[in-house]
Amino acid sequence: xxxxxxxxxxxxxxASVIAAGRRSRWVVIAVWLALAMLALPLQxxxxxxxxxxxxxxxxxxxxxxxxxxxVDERFRRGSETAAVIAYFREGGITADDGRRADTxxxxxxxxxxxxxxxxxxxxxxxxxxxxxxxxxxxxxSLLTSPDDxxxxxxxxxxxxxxxxxxxxxxxxxxxxxxxxxxxxGLRAFVTGRAGFEADRQAAxxxxxxxxxxxxxxxxxxxxxxxxxxxxxxLVPLAVVALAYLVTSGLAYGLxxxxxxxxxxxxxxxxxxxxxxxxxxxxxxMVARFRDELRRTRxxxxxxxxxxxxxxxxxxxxxxxxxxxxxxxALADFNATREMGPILALGVAIMVCAGLTLLPAxxxxxxxxxxxxxxxxxxxxxAPAVTFWGRVxxxxxxxxxxxxxxxxxxxxxxxxAGMGGRPALDFAESFREAPDSVRGxxxxxxxxxxGRAAPLRIVVADEVGGKVQSAxxxxxxTPVADMHAVARSAGADGLLIFDAxxxxxxxSEQSTDAVPVLREVAxxxxxxxxxxxxxTVAENYDSRQxxxxxxxxxxxxxxxLILVVLAVLLRAVVMPLYVIATVILSFGxxxxxxxxxxxxxxxxxxxxxxxxxxxxxxxxxxxxxxNVFLLSRITERRRQHETRRAxxxxxxxxxxxxxxxxxxxxxxxxxxMVLPMEALFQIGFVVTLGLLADTFLVxxxxxxxxxxxxxxxxxxxxxxxxxPG
Length: 724
Description:
The protein is of the alpha+beta class and 724 residues long. It has 23 helices and 9 strands.
């Protein structure tokens, strides 16, 4: 197969052969160890960079991102990040409660524990901070609920970096009464934008370490079951671990150079993707190496044969994943765009490790790697009937029936999700509601609901009054209250308004109201500057961007995968139906998951990122592992006609490919132990899709279609088998 793949394929296959050499193997191992040691200190630096997600969930070029930029760059006041303390007593706030709020505010002012603190204000006093005639945050009417059961204190900081926000919120929670209540029954919740961000980071705290520990444990168990050898089970994990360290170092270099950004979400998925896909790439070569050791006594000869037969498949599979991940760089949504280059880098490094480090380690260990189940030299004989031999025989006998049955099952599952699901709001994004969510609910129940996350409006000073009137007057508008909070320090004549909505600011209803509000504001401004941002507007812009990104990324990804498969297989028909089957399994996973989430798990809402992330991972990885089967079909096709080539390929690779699918599914399933609903949903859908792809698509549907189409698989190129 290497001779058909072109010069780059032969070159990289040759690299695997060289890496297995008697002397070169030790050089290769030493180089990878040295690179990993150099990168190890950068792991902590990368995690620190990933912890700052202040820009992660914004949209490139959006109106809400423009508001944040203008406020940060041009306003002395208004650019602060707010932590809101909600003091709550069921029977009504007392005079002692008010004094407690003032005492807490003074303590926070003098503690020095809050980075870049600019103001602390209660309904009764400004404990610290400059007086601003436009600032209404100290007004008791805005900070006391109509039923007198809640009072709000506001803590403002000029820094919105995630680590500083976490430090500030932790300091506030040390001072104020606990959310469970003090001895008098007064409860305090720290919420607002700072509270939301701190609780999100707390939920993700230690996520990579947790994922890594669970992933390694799951993979080690599966590898021990597969090979019944502790050493060969550890080898793929060690290879992937070194590749992961090297990737972390290079990723930090890219981030430090300003070439890309990184978030905690990206680093979490990087762990899962590298350990899942990387272990599978290693499995393919380990399995072939074991087979070759049964044919020859010479370990180097066995590795050369294994590398020549598996390296092209590993390289092609990796190229599909790398290319698909790079397509994510086209996205406007920052979280999606920044993920692409980092994940592509991780897979590329993993492929390099699989083609160099793995052959070197396996050759150095030799047959000892498989102890106690050491492969012994076996004479050529007719293979015994195996489970996968029986499956291949069944597919060979009834390809039409099997193709129809599997297609019907997958299509029925896909149709189950046609109704769609609403988007998760902030409260639903945690599997257990933290302090900030409960505080937001208290504010929603006792204040104007939008007080928890107001719209932020930047408007030209001369039309500020007109815009305020247009957005607040009449029953048609969802804005309940709007007040100016800052004026720009320069001569540009801009005002910042905060606008509170009548409905829950994290609901889909509020998100849907944003384009109408922007239209009303633009009409009232009469061509003057007016921009609407804030959390609600950011949610709307993100939803719009995700739709645009999906419409762009999906066709580009599919076209890229089609080209790679067509080059690899020297055909057009087979790549087309392989892609179609993987898309069908993606639809099945999304549809069946929708039913399970809604009717069994009681979670009818969906993370807006779910469809595009599930598509990218399922289609890229689904096609990726089909490459392992297809490469063996093309290998056998040189000796036999197509139907026999498919039968033999399925019989000989069914076990290792199914093991690879189980390994990858188990790896993505580790996301389901995390406390964030979005990651749980991604883990569930991708795991279900990978299982469907492993046991239905790769094991049954693709072989059945290949047998039905027979020689037409290779259109438009004529491929003549050499009888064997």
